[in-house]
Amino acid sequence: MQRTKLNIGDTTHGFNVLNVEYLKELNTELIQLTHSATGARWVHLNNEDPNNLFAVGFRTPPADSTGIAHILEHTALCGSRNYPVRDPFFSMLKRSLNTFMNAMTASDWTVYPFSSQNRKDFANLLGIYLDAAFFPLLRENDFLQEGHRLEFSEPGNPDSPLEYKGVVYNEMKGAMASPSSLLYRRLGKALYPTTCYHFNSGGEPSDIPDLTWDDLRNFHARYYHPSNAWFYTYGNIPVEEHLGVTTEKVLCHFSRLDIDSSVPSEQRFAKPFRVAESFPLDPGETATNKSIVQTAWLTCDIEESFSRLSLSLLSMLLLGNPAAPLHKALLDSRLGGNLAPGCGFQDDNRTTFFAAGLQATEPENTDAIEGLILETLGKVAETGFTRERIDAVIHRLEFGQREVSGDRYHYSLGLLMRIMGPWLHADDPVSVLKLEDNLDRLRSEAANSNYFPDLIRQYLLDNQHRVTLTLAPDPEMQNRIDAEVEQKLATISEKLSDGEKEQILLKAAELKESQEQEEDLSCLPTLELSDIPEKEPAVAYSAAAVASIPTTWFPQPTNGILYFNAHLSLDGIEHCDLPYLPIYCSLASQVGAAGKSYVEMAQQVEAHTGGISLSSEILDNPEDSDDFEALVSLRGKALNHKQEPFFRILGEFLIAPDFSDIERVRTVLRQLQTSVENAIPGSGHLYAARAGAARLSASAQQRELWSGISLLHLLRNLNALDDTGLRHETDRFAAIAAKLANRDNISFAVTGEENSFQEVEKHLATFSEQLPSATGDIAVDFTKQLAGSGRIGWSTSVPVSYVTRTFKTVPYRHQDAPALMILAKLLRSGFLHREIRERGGAYGGMASCNNEAGLFTLLSYRDPHLIRTLDVYDQAAQWAAAEDFSDEAIKEAKLSVFSDLDRPLSPGGRGAHEFSNLKQGLTLEMRQQLRQQLLACGRHEISAAATRYLVENRERVDSIISGEEQLARANEKISDNKISINKI
Asked: Are 862 and 916 in a shared domain?
């Protein structure tokens, strides 16, 4: 790593250097600066990572629930002084090789981050982001599109009913239908009566229409200023370059302002209290076991860094795994099916809080749940924690600090999220990254056996600032909400003069005209195809068997961590047992093993590993989309000095899982069910698409069985069994385990630092020798009839829709696969975004090409429409087939494809990903050939693919998740091929 030449006290580009510090655990240098003229703050994390990230954040405390900060976040990206086009953000998504582009609104701040591995691309995006944040146009039409507006339900007819439209309005209608999202918002409202956390920064659908365009512009003028700005950069670009560009483009145009955006500490309660709230439930659903009960305490202020760390560790001791006393007591009580969302210590706000509770419960259990929490805390305050438990949790913290993650959530962005709260509210971005210093003090404090019991008494038992919230389903609530909105709109309509009606029509026409206007995007920077890396970097590996088991070795800079993967063949698994595989995978690492209870195993995992998991995996044949291989993947990770216990624990879970504890099995099954139920409102488009694809492809059918609505139905059936029935099912899981633990049908992968491999091989050999041998197992049979084309709907409690259309296409190696990949990007950026989001008001409209599975899908997210969106899909196919796109659009689509292909992985992720590629037969040569085909693909190939697979292709399924009434109303408008409606 190239260390900075800056020292504390230096000045560069108008910035004073406040701190320069090497963070050993992160192999990163922290540079903290402040701008002398404006007071802008800057933190740069200097390291060797070429995936550079920039972010600018503002403290934006809301004073109401109109969603002003959220709508401003959207609208700021809709055109700026130097880039006065309608939507530079979405335009740049397709003109870039970005690895991340987004903006996000928290409870008290808004941040605009992006990242890229390409220096030219980074410079392009930096200009766009700086201009959007500090010099947005904030046009009225952008506010009406992104926020809210009134329109007549029949365009052009002022006598038709009024309705609300707007992207954020529909987004929050969907978000507030999710009980877990609603729980967080309602808990904040109760726990913080006098500060900004009392309000919903995203916006309550009932309050969003109260926001005015002037309010929005005034909010920007007040808060989006360098004096209220926090800049963050990460990677190998020297901080001086960032400072120079930002000074030239932004800071030289501003002087210091005295902006009071600070958030005070919350005023403390004199005594605890309770709150009862409701959430809408589809009338067709049962209300049984749908409630959530959560008890929460306000704890320390955010500037108390050591108290925050202590409470984080206390939270892990109480709730961090199935052996933790509060976790165990709550689930063993049978008062609910799973821990409530958001359990544990939360330190994002100015004043932090701790919460514990249960979901999948009943309102009448509130007394018992609150009492159990207090009783358990009282017992723990008396007994304390063993030194072994404390050391295990400290090990877990150390592992998290050392690991360079980022396969699902960008590592650099994760570091920003860690520092944002302490930095904004306590001017302390450093302590949360210097874990080791505070851990040394924590070890010293924990030597006193009363340390954690005293914390429990101080912050929980003796703390009067406590709220117990009961969130219960109400089957009539959505109808009441809809009726209230209709009445409000009817009242508005009655009072409208002819001139005001004309004004609504005029604004709707102006917005439509602006959305349809062809724009000159030449002011926006772009990359060229020549900027795309010519080759995919090869992942180095070697093959050397261990105890005769095929093993692949991936040397990677893993910062002292070992990553282990095993592929377990399904040969010998009975066909009737296949649907149960994902449930086995979840159970196997959460039950007892090798004569130890699940509590003992959970403690061992925490003390010696970074986690162990099993999952079902499907690898499609690159040559044939009707052929696939399914397997179970065993994954684990550990610090290098923990190899011996790590492989011992792996062996115990794989060879000797114990499913005999029926109560433990029942607990895990209930947790799995609630987890899937919680996921659907936020990922409805994915569940709908899986259900549709399952009718077209054998591999997609298996994916849906293992990760879709079918899995939820199976879990519900298992949870309805009595003990005798469930004991019979545990025999099934034991039989699956016996078939999987077979040395003749297994292969290994090790990812880590090469100098650790000799030691790994020794422990891996010991692990391998324990595995039994069972040759002659027959290959698993996945044969099952496919339902084929159709139109299916799934009803659940959502006020918006998730509309998908999936087509059967071709495999990875087919000559049309590159054209379909480009077509997906063209459709999203050139047609669906405009028609579904801008004009339709949905939060998202997108297209996806899964060329490994041979599927192409059109999707909408939090969509106020259903029939209209299906019509848009018809129009989209015709648009693409007609070649109604430019050469520039094709270039941009190719850039978007390569942005996805070249997305960086963590060191551990690189090994795991390449291990699956090798197993799948997806060679580097094949991937390189695809790159060349993508670059060579032209407009005629793309339009021909659209005609062949989207227009003429009858192998397609429409699959929709929505409310039962919305689906029924849609069927009234469909003359043929009606929606077959099912309950989720």
From this structure: yes
